[in-house]
Give the backbone structure.
Amino acid sequence: MARNMAVIAAEILTILALIVACIFSFGGMKPVGELDTRYLALIDTSNITSTVSQVTYHGLPDSHDFSKHKDVFAIYLYAYCSGTLEDKNSKDDAKRYKINFCSKPGSELFDQYRLWKVWGVDLATPRKAKNEVDKSIGVAAIKKMPRVILVGFNTAMLSLGLTVLAGLSSYFFRHWSLITAAVFSTISSISILTVSSLCQSLYPTLIHRTNDYTISFGSSNGTLTSRYSARQLSILWLVSCLSTLASICLIFGALRSHYGARNPKNGPRRSGEDKTGGLGGLVRRTTDRFFDTVDVSGTYQKLGGDGRDALVRAISIGGESRKNISEVELIEQNENGRDDGTGGSLVHGPHRGLRDEEDTRYEPMRHH
């Protein structure tokens, strides 16, 4: 019961994590027009002006859109979009900016740093560093981390999907499917946790270096403004928490299934077997009249390896069937019997006074 509840809880958590991750990842993939507010970071370059050959440009160039100058750059997980400022007085980003270009998802990530350096924006210098992480991240890391984040996120999404499938199949294939689901879930948890940590390090660092960045370089001047989306980063951490909880549930269920499969107590018992699994003692024959109390015949099982005749069950060995005839409770013996002083052990009960070798209640084991 506990195993099934753990699997059901894990499936629900994994599906929720998958849905939230999908919604998060679709940012920047809708057609050009209004700005998609599911960005990780937004850089406003509308206050930058540059004069070249008596021609004034606003913003900074976009290397993937024929170096056209743009007023805004919105960075998403799979892509980035650029556009122009439409309504500078609007506080709604979707109305404030108009997007006219989005890069190819997965192949063209935000990498304007080298081109922007020509126009006076150098991100190699730590500005307004909040901690040692901000100081340690250089331009090379800023360039490479989005690709690493993308690979980690794809791994997490694939693992989440496989976790759902393996979890559903565990209702039919049980043990190994559940272990497989736990492995995939653990992979997804580690991947999404890595992605969340990298995003939490990269985008605040990028914003600290671009926000209020004043350009005074040749004919270029002005100030950059930027911000990151705490909401989007929180969604990533939410996916990480859901995936981690699902992993814990699946690992618990897999352990329950593993040890339950090895414990015969949890499986179906055949007649003639006691709760501890198998035939726990010696099988011997007895006389027709057992202690002059119960009329039984055939073969009996002497249970328990602790020196006590605790329970005897009548079974048929080599016969047509195996059946429980009755359960007879015997008088307990001490582990080694009672020593009569002559080297033998005295038997307790109705046959007290007899040594073990004189006791005829049990004949030697019959093999077949």
